[in-house]
Amino acid sequence: MADALKIGIAGLGTVGASLVRIIQQRSNALAVACGRAITITAVSARDRNKDRGVDLSGITWFDDPVALAENADIDVFIELVGGADGAADKSVRAALARGVHVVTANKALLARHGVEFARLAEEKGLLINYEAAVAGGIPVIKAMRESLTGNNFSRVYGIMNGTCNYILTRMEKEGLSFEACLKEAQRLGYAEADPTFDIEGNDTAHKLAILTTLAFGSEIAADDIYLEGISNISIEDINAAAELGYRIKLLGVAQRTETGIEQRVHPTMVPLDSVIAQVDGVTNAVALESDILGELLMVGPGAGGNATASAVLGDITDIAKSRPGAQQVPVLGRPAALLEPYRQAKMKSHEGGYFIRLSVVDRAGVFASIATKMAENGISLESIVQRSQHTTADAPVTIVLVTHATMENAVRKAVSAIKHEGYLIGEPQVIRIERPKTA
Amino acid sequence: MADALKIGIAGLGTVGASLVRIIQQRSNALAVACGRAITITAVSARDRNKDRGVDLSGITWFDDPVALAENADIDVFIELVGGADGAADKSVRAALARGVHVVTANKALLARHGVEFARLAEEKGLLINYEAAVAGGIPVIKAMRESLTGNNFSRVYGIMNGTCNYILTRMEKEGLSFEACLKEAQRLGYAEADPTFDIEGNDTAHKLAILTTLAFGSEIAADDIYLEGISNISIEDINAAAELGYRIKLLGVAQRTETGIEQRVHPTMVPLDSVIAQVDGVTNAVALESDILGELLMVGPGAGGNATASAVLGDITDIAKSRPGAQQVPVLGRPAALLEPYRQAKMKSHEGGYFIRLSVVDRAGVFASIATKMAENGISLESIVQRSQHTTADAPVTIVLVTHATMENAVRKAVSAIKHEGYLIGEPQVIRIERPKTA
Q1: If you average pLDDT over residues B231-243, what whole number do you get?
Q2: Residue B180 lies in a domain
Q3: Which among B2, B273, B322 has the least Cβ separation from residue A278?
Q4: Which residues bind NADP(+) (chains A, B) (predicted)?
Q5: With an 8 Å Cβ cutoff, is B4 touching chain A?
């Protein structure tokens, strides 16, 4: 049997502690599967005295992850510190500089420095594995980097934030407001005290940026992503969607178009009978559309200590199974030097169906006016639903339009024209429709 | 750049021809992704003169796949011949004996000889990759062999036969009979002229046997699988299932129980709102339940020249990315020498819910008699639906029972007791219910 693979784990939060526990409890099974033992030789965290329910005796302790990366007796550095800069960044650089492989679960770090890290790793024949950084336990990185080699991707999309999917699922199932569901998510630990990063789509965007690079071979461009969160989705939208045969999900979508690559994160209508529409609660899902394979959808846990630790462990065992330096999987699917500059497609050129919900005053000619503005902008409609509330004589009327595939620019112009007519009450709601390739 | 990886392809049917075309058209992209070129140096097929729409000039032709495996200048032997014995078997043995890696899409071959092949390969440090053998383009082998290392599996199940899923989907959507849908599947090329192997579950069983070994570390036991096909599923079953909130799918299920491992292929009721219930037509799906990760579901194309070729290509590029002999992924998840004997759980000990549809004569006391037989066997019922057709005075009555979790043995006894009462018309229909871990 080959020498043990020595690993150092920086960060002992939920994921790190799970990882230590699993590696210790399953050392025999792991050694059998990998042909060599996996030994934790060093760990680092802020507080040495905290009880994490794991036995750290015999493991070298570092207060500072950078010191661990620089000095510990390790073959692989496991970065579970978090954050796009600071200690996470410094420690990964230190590990690569020393010739040590890296495993990380840090999407923010990769979204910012991934291309540079890939270059550093490839210069030295090192591996960077990061399965846990996107959609937690779902092996989407492996599928894209290894299984689908040779495929040309057309679109990659998914539900990649459990907080948002939990909130949208509860809103629909229980008829509750966004605010009520957010509070419930916070109570259950599915949402942070400051939930902005999740509900406004930033977290999804970091993950999407990594998938975009793997799919299209362009440099990571996390700052060039169109972002729209779920905080203004109302129960009326959800109900109207259901009535028309759709369900609302926060999707991250990367798509090749004639004018460049679209990267967008926004609430999306998906057909009610599609597989992805059934993905409920904190569960994640990623769909890969490519020309040889067709469509592959993977559904699984997107977060949680154990699920994330499972993905990190898969990354570690991949390194254990290869002889150090022997395997040549390019970090970002192709060698970093061959990545192309990101060519951003403009959102106003986006083509697709749209759901438009308008609240209007109950007045003769309004319906005709709306239909005219749509027609003037070349938008053809799949369905129109008008509903009066009839509670009082001058109660507002809700009009819901679903368009056939059209240009975002046309929709924006039509909605803007409608706003100028003076019969709208409040802001119009516009939600994009996304259709899986196979229904 | 490293030397080109030289491959020989035995079998130029739909998959083989797709593979040749893709490798030739994408040679540059593949070389970039793998760090070395992939070169087809040899092919073999029965008829040299057939037009396959691919350019075979410069490639050494062999009439006999065994001769190719024995003599061609190759690093990897790609077996696309088919069949559990004969040329497929002989050529794989010849390749391994020479020290050549093997890629195969042949589930029947692996179901019969997989353990022996794994032993031969591991003795020589060779790889056998076989992603395409189970669920076509879905990367389930990679997920189990590489991503989920360290996980203990509890259950693995899936829709692994497109023909059956196509037939069941059309029956439900269009209210057609099994026979009508089978004919349509044959017309469209989704079913063979002799469809027995697909519709009676043998094809699913071969795939399941491989997954069982990867999940539970036991030797492949393809002959010890409980088999029940879909040919006696009627439109009445499908309608009754829908009414009770279920859909019928042909599943292969491998499950660890207290008395051993269950391997079973049978029509199965899955909850209508589960993700797997939405998997329609020829699409396949595989669910992996394990203790660290939780539940992972993968949905994708289970057959077709391109999708299968994509999986084969992924297997080839994995070998291209590793230096020959350097990677140590055990063929069956753990070294063949460490596989355990298969310990079969008896079907009569299977625990689960059951759907039972009975056609009975319309006579006082029948309903009470059925309820009594169930109670006498300790079976508690989740729901009972009785429906008279009222077409004529003595028209049969349909009774549908759904049980809570119970033992198969109890169900068999109860049904047998009911049969002895003399009021049944025709055979009772019994269909097992399978529930995903997360709904």
Answers
A1: 95
A2: yes
A3: B273
A4: 10-17
A5: no
